[in-house]
Amino acid sequence: MEAIRLAVNGRTDIGRVREENEDCIRWHGDPEQPFSYIVIADGMGGYSGGATASRIAADTLDRQLALLPDGIFLSCSPDQQQLMLRATLIDAIDIANREILETKGTHPQFSQMGTTLVAGVIWGDFLIVAHIGDSRAYLWNNYGLQRLTRDHSVVQEMMDQGKITEQQAQESNIRNHITRALGVSEQVEPTINSWTLTESALLFLCSDGLTEYLDDHTIERVLATHRPALECVYRFIDDANQLGGRDNISAGIMEFSNTPGDFAETSPEAITRKPKKDDITVRKEQR
Fold it and tell me: Where is the PPM-type phosphatase domain (predicted)?
């Protein structure tokens, strides 16, 4: 455990067209344990509704995950800790879903709201990712880029069935139609996968406001070349805005290092700093 180093950074931006930011991002790096996470939610549902749903989802996961590395957790075996991480994610997603549904029931103006969600958690060399909708997670290392999530969307289903190509999906006028979201039904079905990290890597999470403009090849090129690596979040948001910025844009990145000297240009305060309000609400021009 001592050899593992984690650093994390995140940013959300309103974009160039929308009047409100319906994305929400939360991230955290533990100052004492090899434990970090990123949560991104992309809300939908009209004025203030999407922002409310995404905030509920991101805050709920942030709150539940932050409580995890307590005495009981630390006293468990690695296998037990991994099971506890998975259970915590599942429980937090269920709690968020119920809270969104309850808020919809008591506030008619939010009746159409819901949100996507992607969360990535690293404990030691264990990585677990949960997602619902089309917000994504990627992993980059010396072998290249791997997409860790498969969109819950209509165009993804059409691609899986061989009806359209990835390029056609990118250009489709229904590319934003998702098939799963939080706050839609009593039962929510996240996809959860986990991996063991064997070498230094970058974990990258984003909302579809970014992947609308930047394909996997572009994402891979930036993650491979832009340093300090944590500042990729600003580069990605700038690029998406320059290409149109029609949607809100969120990006979070985590450095996992088990080799001395990797990502050495990282600012020390980025390892543990919680996001400030300005990190999650500002317009691009104000950054």
Answer: 7-256
